[in-house]
Amino acid sequence: MFKQFLLGLACALIAIPASAQNAGEIARVQSGQSCPGCNLFQADLAYRDLPGIDVSGARLRQANLSLSTLNGADFSGTDLSIANLFGARLTGAKLGNANLGRAVMVGTYLGGADLSGANLAGVNLSGAELETAKGLTQSQLNAACGDASTRLPAGLGIPRCR
Hints:
The chain is mainly α. Helices cover about 15% and strands about 0% of the residues. The protein has helices at about 1-15, 25-30, 140. The chain is globular, with a radius of gyration of 18 Å. The N and C termini lie far apart (about 55 Å). About 45% of the residues are buried.
């Protein structure tokens, strides 16, 4: 009886779709090709120049995009939770409804970026440039943190990181 249970459990686990990263999709994005909806879990995209890339709806959870140039990129609806965007340049990027929960965005440039509906819970925006960001609300910023050098649109504030 126990062996049958284990066999049934093993079969059920095999049937569960894998959620690990997809090396082929990561290589595609690393070469500058768009990949909407792709599984880019823990992708290393640091120091890349990927202007206008479309990774809307993709899974970039725990990805490293530090010091990358992603101007005009489409991250709409993308999971960027716990991602490293340290010093990334996202001029005019589309981040509407993106999940940036607990991402590191220290020193990130978001001039003209659209953050409408983006989840910023636990995001560190210390030193980030958001002065001309679009769709940013006080409610979003209340869930994030920053420092004295965080630049925000007029009338908005951010709690200090501890």
